[in-house]
Amino acid sequence: MSRILVVEDERHIANGLRFNLEAEGMEVEVLGNGAQAATLLLAERDRFDAVLLDVMLPGKDGYAVAAEVRAAGQFVPILMLTARGRAEDVLRGLEAGADDYVPKPFELAILLARLQGLLRRGRWQRSDHPATADTAAPDVCTVAGRRIDFDAMEITVKDRTHRLTRMECDLLRYLVRNAGRAISRKAILEDVWGLVDSTDTRAIDNFVVRLRRYLADGPGAPAILQTVRGVGYKFVLPA
Fold this sequence. Notes:
8 helices, single chain, Arc Repressor Mutant, subunit A
């Protein structure tokens, strides 16, 4: 049985989520305060399989909660609930460490599908995603001595493994699949995250900075993830 933490201060929404998630066979705990949620997630790291986290919370908001638990090395899947039409909320949530987002007001079927996707990915990671008869080959590639496992959302460099959020992983996958091509910020926003190109693109730069930390060989080494002035970025495979 999957254990879900719902962090939502609007009681009618929280009660509705509890009812529907329990109807799907999940065990649900509800909190309406961001600080309490952060404390619980850090104190009991293995208690929950996923978190539904609202942005607007009293005291400590959803961005602060996500950032705090990620900074402490807590990688429980986070599905963030954002205000409808506010792309800045989405990008701030992803920067803070959310794995996915659903805008409010949300379609229950879509929320459940997104949540189930995060739960499946979590199960694969905990079981080391063994191959089965009906499972496709792992989505893995090796670049400049780095093993990138897109299924597990990890980059392994020598004996160190870096965990990726889902959106970091999706961006890196997109860049790798388009290696050698200059990719515009507009294409990244629309193709990777489904956002309109009028959205503030500084968040993309922040994602790229983090990915470069995982991919860089040190000062003076050739850049794998390059900036193309006036366009966007290009993933360059080493010769």
